[in-house]
Specification:
This protein has 339 residues and is an alpha/beta fold. It has helices at residues 19-27, 40-44, 62-68, 73-89, 106-111, 139-145, 159-163, 174-187, 199-202, 206-217, 232-237, 241-249, 265-268, 272-284, 300-311, 313-335, and strands at residues 9-13, 32-36, 93-99, 166-171, 228-231. The protein has a 5-stranded parallel β-sheet with strand order 2-3-1-4-5, with helices on both faces.
Length: 339
C-alpha cells in the first residue's frame, strides 16, 4: 500500500509570467521551504542540455558554467529529492518553482510546434525516481523514492514524483509574455532570434496546457487530484487574490511578504546578464507593481502595431503570429483558472 504523501507544492511556470513576484510573496513564508529552478543548469549547461539556441558566451558567469557542465537531469533531480526530504524533516512544506520547458520531453516539444518550423530532437534524458541520500529516513519519502520510474506525463520527470505534488500552473496573456521574453532575452545575451529553434518553444503556452491535461486526466496521487491554475493578471491586479490563494493552499495569509527592499548591488554583482535581465524588474521593486489595465482590455490589433513599431516589421510579424497561436492555450487555461 502506498504511503500517504505530505503536502508539496510545484509551481509550473513560463518565463515572463510574473512567477518571481509570486515566489517573492511566498518564499519567506515560515511554513514553506522554497526551491527555484532545479532543472535550469541541466537545461542550459549540462551534457544533456535541451536548449537548442546558441547562448552568448557572457550570458552566464564562467565560474558557474564551469561548475555545472556535468549537471545531468538525474543529478538535478536527486538534489531536488534531497531538498524535498530536508524540508519535510523540518516539518515544512516544499515549494518548488520551475519553467516547464526546462524539463519537457523533447519528443513532446517536437510534436507540438508549428509544422513549418524545423526542430532538432535531442535525446530525452532518463530520470529515475530514487533516493539521492542514503541517510534519509522519512517514511513517505523512502516509499515514494522506491517507486518505479513510470512516465506518462509530458516532462522528463517520473509520474510518481509529479503525482506527489500539489500542482500550480501560472500563465499570462501572450501579448504581454512574448515581447517581454524577447526583450529580456536580448538584454540577457541569449542571442535570441525569431528564426532560432527555441523561439516557438518560448512563445507558447502549450507546455503548461499539456501539464494541466496530464494532471487532470492521469494523476492519481494524493496531492495531485486538484490543479490550481493561476492567471498573472489576477495575481498582480486583484488585491484579494493572494488571501484566497493562501486559503486554498492551506497556509497562513498573515505570513506573506507584501513588500521588500530592492536588491543590493552586492547581491546583483555575480549573477550574470541572463539572470539579471530576467529579474531586473523585481530587483528594482519594493512590492507588487499593479498594471494600469486588466488583460481583458488588451486589443490584439493595437498590440500588433506596437510590436511593429518597437521591433521592426519582420520581428513584429513573427511575434504577432505566435501571439495568435498562443491565444488558444491561453484561453483554455484562463477558463480553468482559480479566482
Amino acid at each position: 500500500m502506498a504511503t500517504k504523501c505530505p503536502k508539496r507544492f510545484f509551481l509550473f511556470t513560463h518565463a515572463r509570467t510574473t512567477s518571481n513576484v509570486l515566489t517573492t510573496i511566498l518564499a519567506k513564508h515560515p511554513e514553506l521551504v522554497y526551491t527555484d529552478y532545479p532543472m535550469h543548469d541541466a537545461f542550459f549547461l549540462g551534457p544533456e542540455a535541451l536548449l537548442c539556441r546558441t547562448r552568448g558566451p557572457d550570458a552566464v558567469p564562467q565560474t558557474h558554467e564551469a561548475a555545472k557542465r556535468g549537471e545531468t537531469y538525474q543529478i538535478a533531480f536527486n538534489r531536488l529529492l534531497d531538498e524535498v526530504a530536508s524540508a519535510e524533516r523540518q516539518g515544512k512544506i516544499p515549494f518548488i518553482k520551475e519553467h516547464v520547458y526546462f524539463f519537457m520531453d523533447p519528443n513532446v516539444v517536437a510534436r507540438n510546434i508549428p509544422a513549418d518550423v524545423p526542430r532538432t530532437v535531442k535525446p530525452c534524458p532518463v530520470v529515475v525516481n530514487r533516493s539521492a541520500s542514503k541517510s534519509i529516513s522519512n517514511g513517505s519519502y523512502n516509499s515514494l523514492a522506491s517507486l518505479p520510474a513510470i512516465r506518462t506525463n509530458p516532462t522528463v520527470l517520473p509520474d510518481s514524483f509529479l503525482e506527489s505534488m500539489t500542482p500550480l500552473i501560472l500563465f499570462r496573456h501572450p501579448a504581454l509574455m512574448i515581447p517581454s521574453f524577447y526583450r529580456a532575452a536580448q538584454r540577457g545575451k541569449l542571442e535570441i532570434s525569431i528564426f532560432d529553434e527555441d523561439w516557438p518553444v518560448n512563445a507558447s503556452f502549450r507546455w503548461l496546457r499539456l501539464v494541466y491535461d496530464w494532471y487532470a486526466s492521469h494523476a492519481t496521487g494524493t496531492n495531485a487530484t486538484s490543479v490550481m491554475v493561476i492567471d498573472s493578471d489576477d495575481l498582480i491586479n486583484s488585491p484579494g487574490f493572494t488571501p484566497r490563494l493562501c486559503a486554498r493552499l492551506g497556509i497562513d495569509e498573515r505570513k506573506l511578504q507584501t513588500s521588500w527592499e530592492p536588491a543590493t548591488k552586492a547581491f546583483r554583482a555575480d549573477k550574470g546578464p541572463m539572470v539579471s535581465s530576467f529579474h531586473s524588474t523585481l530587483w528594482d521593486s519594493t512590492g507588487i507593481i499593479r498594471s494600469t489595465r486588466r488583460d481583458c482590455e488588451i486589443d490584439i490589433s493595437v498590440e500588433r502595431e506596437k510590436l511593429r513599431d518597437e521591433f521592426g516589421a519582420e520581428v513584429g510579424k513573427s511575434m504577432a503570429r505566435y501571439i495568435d497561436l498562443a491565444m488558444e492555450d491561453y484561453l483554455y487555461l484562463r477558463e480553468r483558472r482559480f479566482h
